[in-house]
Amino acid sequence: MLKSLFHWKVWVNILLASAVFAGAVWLTFRWLELHTNHGKEIAVPNVMNKSVHEAIKVLEDTGLDYEVDSGKYEPKFKPFQVLQIYPSPGSRVKDGRTIILKVNPRSYAPVSVPDVLDRYKGLAFRQLEQVGLKIGDTILEPSIQRDAVLRLLYNGATLKPGALLPRFSTIDIVIGAGPKRNISVPNLVGLTVQEAKAVIKQNLFEIGLVEHEDGGADESDIVYYQDPAAFDVRDQGMQIDIWASKKTPAEMGGKISQLNSIYRIKMDYSVPENYDNETPVYREPVPRGSESEVVEAPKSTVPKSETPKQEVKKVETSKGTEQKPKPAEGKPTTPAKTTPTKTEEKPKVKKVIVE
Prior knowledge:
Trypsin Inhibitor V, Chain A; elongated
């Protein structure tokens, strides 16, 4: 076994294989040198602060490719000025290497208008300022949506959400002023349903019930009744109900009178003739029974009025007993004078006790 390893044919095969491997490696590296221009490098030219057109011309003359990238707008630099370059100037690169140029754009990048319609004005202002838009004039317009954004204007034209505008553009905002109060209701009788709806919206009222006589939905029907009635005073934003028919209002008299009995109820606020301004007196209910019992009821109230007179007499006797010891204190002249005066004041005491 060992003798076969040291045979000369084996060694010849090993040498031939080694020579083939070494030749393949040498050829591979030689091909790479020729293909990649090994040892042939170019210095990146300095094109900083030049215009993008000048920088591109220099790179093309040097044999380098380029790629332009516009970054954030810097107002302190000129438009289309080269701000950065990668690889950095002076670096050694191969021929045909791509050089990235970062250029200052002409102006700010456009921003998308956020959707702030029908939102509170304070929230709309913050969202618009966050994306880089400025608020111009604030226009108030009659609307039931108080302090809500109705429209956005740019140079007099209406803006839609999602439109692109230059950064720091100034836009005007139309805001609802809120509903007005005590507005006269327009007269809709005789108009078509389509015309009546337009008048209701124009006066900032809401369209309520729309009832057709035939149960259809033809907007060419004529309005013969409305609620609230024409020229009534209401606040904007309230509903107006209308009834329509193919017939004219003059032909719908029966239906109109029927609706009047429902929606035009008249309240009588007149004062009756026999009305007195006396305050009402509460009277105890009389129990059910014979008429004799009913007659005896007022008689029982008569002795009640006499009872306080008996109490007054009792009070007089008590006062008399209390005043008798006073003249016994050694004052003989005073009792004769005081007794008549006390008897005169006794009626006053009666009044107080009765109360």
